[in-house]
Design goal:
- By secondary structure, the chain is α+β, with helices and mostly antiparallel strands.
- 31% of the residues lie in helices and 17% in strands.
- The chain has seven helices and seven strands.
- The relative contact order is 0.20.
Length: 138
Amino acid sequence: MPRTDLSRLALRHGHWEPGIPGVCPAAREAQAGGVLRRISNVAHTELDLANPKANRGKKGFTEEERKGFQNLVDAGFVDTFRLFNQGNGHYSWWSNFANSRARNVGWRIDYFLVSAPLKSKVRIADIHPRSWAAITAR
């Protein structure tokens, strides 16, 4: 059973999350660029979940987790999905309770990020809500 508390938030925010941009600088700066497939379990912005106010400060939508994701964006990575899709209602995870998937009450917590040199090469990024492997980019 996954943890529902925030006991590992300090580890995530203070230890391994800050290391991600450091692992990828060569790919980010290289002409060929880099791709980061990210299953973050974090909704980056309020547009990335159905009920942002009710979930603020909860696991997956804390300020620390969102800042960790924003650090990747600030380091030069681009959210491929947002190149083609704006607004809310686009989710990659739904609770198994309360018929959430059928009602599209979900979270977008899966991302493909690319470095700036690859941004113009991305042709499509989409979520397929009827598929269990919901997100694709190419």
